[in-house]
Amino acid sequence: MVRSIRVVQVGLGAMGGGIAEVMARRDGLEVVGAVDPSPDYCGKDLSEVLQLDNNVGQKVQADMEEVLSQADADICIICTFSFLHEVRPQIIAALQHGCDVITIAEEMAYPQAAIQGDGEEIHRLALAEKRTVLGTGINPGFVLDTLLIALTAACTDIERIKARRVNDLSPFGPTVMRTQGVGATPEEFADGLQDGSIVGHVGFPQSMYLVASALGWELDEVKEERKPIIAEQRRTGSNIVVEPGMVAGCNHTARGLVDGEEVLVLEHPQQVEPGAAGVDTGDYVDIEGTPGISMAIKPEIPGGIGTIATAVNMIAPVLSASPGLKTMIDLPLPRAVLGDVRETVKQLQVAHDCTS
Questions:
Q1: Is 22 exposed, middle or buried (0-12, 13-18, 19+ CB in 10 A)?
Q2: What does the alpha-carbon distance between residue 194 and residue 269 come to, in Å, rounded to a whole number?
Q3: Residue 241, class by beta-carbon neighbours within 10 Å (0-12 exposed, 13-18 middle, 19+ buried)?
Q4: CATH topology of domain 146-300
Q5: Where in the chain is the domain with CATH 3.30.360?
Q6: DSSP secondary structure code for residue 28 in this structure
Q7: Which residue from 271, 282, 107, 300 is spatially nearest to 200, judged by alpha carbons?
Q8: C-alpha–C-alpha distance, residues 101 and 134, integer Å
Q9: 152 with 215: CB under 8 angstroms?
Q10: pTM for this prediction
Q11: Which DSSP category does 13 fall into?
Q12: Architecture of the domain made up of 5-137+305-355
């Protein structure tokens, strides 16, 4: 058996820490470096940070360049920022040290849709270094794009797709609450939309254009709308209480048009304790076509563990892929990798060699 796949984890927040924990107990993977400047983590043993019984044997460090120069890693998992321009330097550093890259930065799910650039610099460097870069996660990355795309395989014609992800914000921390406007007055919510402090869901353009690219649609435009969800009853989250009349969440909608016709609608109402208002959480897809398809997953796929699983499960497809900047539609069908990750890499490499 070849050596374990050597991984550097960058960012040890809720998602990054969860990813590192899963990798630490996954056959065929070895976490050989961890990066996080937070004083809560830096200088501590990774096993202590993750509260693992087994000793991973790595100290968390603040300097990504130093870790990469020492680690001799195969792949780097980056869980730090949402936006392309913020995460770009870290991706470039990983590529320059010979690593493939997976990031959960939302704009990297389809960088061509990001305002700050299309990722061409990253793509060129990945090709030059013969490495692969993928942006993924639960959303964008799976529920409101890859899953939709997979369902369309059973259709001969499609007129319109509508998908809706309804989730509970209660477990999330203060950063998410602020960006969703939770706890604000309706007036403060409107001001937050204007100054950019309230953003709703990051990643709708990425999902929209990823679906359109897969289906061969050329979207004329994508229209986004964010509206406050006003609490009519007291709501309680893990670190916030929302009184009646205050904002409990954000109802964010994106609409994609082709020749003036609405062909793709994605909705993502996120709020604290939706059950208090009689709202059931879930993931819903309706495809108007031949045949029509309706799918409902109730309750919703949990966002946290879903993102963690998606990132870890895409390690094998990324390591076996051709070089360059990839999206989820460029790689093999996503799946859970429950056995030795090295074996899955070998299987995918054989399949890739047979089709290339």
A1: middle
A2: 19
A3: exposed
A4: Dihydrodipicolinate Reductase; domain 2 (3.30.360)
A5: 146-300
A6: T
A7: 271
A8: 6
A9: yes
A10: 0.94
A11: S
A12: 3-Layer(aba) Sandwich (3.40)
The residue whose two tokens read 């690219």 is 213
The token pair that represents 249 in the structure block: 């969440």
Delimit the CATH 3.40.50.720 region(s) of the chain.
5-137+305-355
What are the CA-CA distances from residue 8 to residues 53, 179, 234, 241 (Å)? 20, 29, 43, 38
Distance separating alpha carbons of residues 160 and 164, to the nearest angstrom: 14
Per-residue tokens: 253: 């909608």
CA distances in angstroms from 333 to 71, 109, 147, 235, listed in the order given:
30, 16, 10, 39
The pLDDT of 274-292, averaged and rounded, is: 96
Taking only the tens place, the pLDDT of each residue in 85-120 is 999 999 999 999 999 999 999 999 999 998 766 799
Burial of 117 (0-12, 13-18, 19+ CB in 10 A): middle
Q: How is residue 350 annotated by DSSP?
A: H
b/e per residue 309-336 (b: at least 16 CB within 10 A): bbbbbbbbbbbbbebbbbbbeebbebee
Indicate the helix (H) or strand (E) that contains 90: helix 84-96
